[in-house]
Design a protein that fits this description.
Elements lengths: L2 H21 L4 H11 L2 H25 L8 H17 L7 H13 L1 H34 L5 H27 L2 H8 L6 H10 L1 H17 L1 H26 L8 H16 L10 H12 L4 H27 L8
Helix pairs in contact: 1-14, 3-4, 3-6, 3-11, 3-14, 4-5, 4-14, 5-6, 6-7, 6-10, 6-11, 6-12, 7-10, 8-9, 11-12, 11-14, 12-13, 13-14
Length: 333
């Protein structure tokens, strides 16, 4: 990728962070007091994400290399994974964010079509694993608390089942038939994008269809790669629940790991419904409040956990933005 483009991505991220810090209603004195209160658990939370991102990078690397000799060094995939997620955190819907950045960084190694298809596939797998995780969490909640479930919670569970069923069906159709062309045609109906995207689709139709063919081929012909990548992403979702447990262990020893799975599931579900908000500002906090209420826990737990997670995100966003500018050796074809 040209240095100019890297500087643009970096600039977008830095500006987004500055705006969020200036508009935040957090008291920095209170924030520092809470971090000090966390003690060694906060560094443990930060360190946990070293391993979670390793899992994400492994899942993506499986898709990129697809059983062949690695064309992209794993350390590069790891770097692009962290930086891509950092850009996605600070840009609404990832526009001008992680996915374009990853495609541009990967293209010198594997070509534009393969880079585009692997990035789309990884994004699809990442989202698809969320639907699998949410579906698993519904079953877990019914197993643990089904006998004492209120009418309101039963309605919420029914909505979750319907939402997850639709999501899983949508992604399975996308894996079978490809998704790039359909997504671009849907976006081309948006005012302001209509003329640009229609021209792009017309001029790049052959390349777009090639990307769709590669997406469909992964599910149809290389099922081992497909399910290995999905399993890794699902395992990362489950391991990520340790973050909430680490934080809540500061406050109490009466919250089990499985309760933390439910907290993570319901909170991420709620915040993803507001995917258009950078860093899900406010949405995660609302999700935590609802989740701890549904599990009959103190609302203070949710406030404290969401606060420390927000700080962890800022630290890793900063790391991801820094990585955009370092370690950029040329690809060797």
């Amino acid at each position: 990728m040209k240095p100019l483009y890297r500087n643009i991505f970096l600039g977008v991220g830095v500006v987004a962070i500055v705006i969020m810090l200036l508009t935040s209603d957090m008291s920095y004195a209170d924030l520092w007091d809470n971090i000090r209160r966390a003690g060694y658990w906060f560094p443990a939370v930060l360190a946990l994400w070293i391993f979670l991102y390793l899992g994400n990078a492994w899942s993506w690397s499986v898709i990129i290399n697809d059983g062949s000799a690695p064309k992209v060094p794993y350390q590069k995939v790891y770097k692009y994974t962290i930086s891509g997620f950092a850009l996605n955190y600070v840009t609404p819907v990832g526009l001008l964010g992680g996915e374009p950045y990853r495609i541009m960084e990967l293209t010198p190694y594997v070509g534009a079509a393969k880079a585009t298809s692997s990035v789309i596939l990884f994004a699809m797998m990442h989202i698809f694993s969320h639907f699998c995780f949410w579906s698993f969490s519904v079953l877990l909640y019914l197993f643990l608390y089904g006998s004492t479930m209120s009418v309101a919670m039963a309605v919420f569970m029914a909505i979750c089942v319907a939402f997850c069923s639709f999501g899983i069906y949508f992604f399975m159709k996308g894996y079978k038939n490809g998704l790039a062309m359909k997504a671009l045609r849907i976006l081309s109906h948006i005012p302001g994008l209509r003329s640009k995207l229609k021209g792009f689709i017309s001029s790049k139709e052959a390349s777009i269809r090639k990307v769709d063919e590669q997406i469909a081929a992964l599910h149809a012909q290389r099922k081992t790669t497909f399910y290995l990548s999905l399993f890794i992403e699902f395992a990362v979702r489950m391991a990520g629940c340790l973050e909430i447990q680490f934080i809540l262990m500061i406050l109490t020893d009466h919250v089990s790991y499985w309760d933390c799975v439910l907290l993570q599931a319901f909170t991420s579900l709620f915040s993803n419904l507001f995917f258009f908000v950078p860093m899900s500002m406010g949405a995660r906090e609302g999700g935590f409040a609802l989740a701890v209420g549904g599990l009959s826990l103190s609302g203070a737990y949710g406030v404290y956990a969401s606060l420390l997670i927000r700080v962890r995100e800022l630290v890793w966003i900063a790391i991801g933005l820094i990585l955009i500018k370092i370690g950029n050796s040329r690809a060797i074809n």
